[in-house]
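Record 1 of the preview.
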Amino acid sequence: MNQKDAEFDPQAESTYECFDCGTVVRATAPDACPECGAEMRNRRTPIE
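->
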């Protein structure tokens, strides 16, 4: 089974989700969650 990584373009917007509160934002690369300040993850990146 082939798995492909998500394409990464640092200038393109993507959907990010907060690890702590679950806030979802669409941005190019957020530094921290706008609601609680926690780390964000790109939702296209698998959690494994």
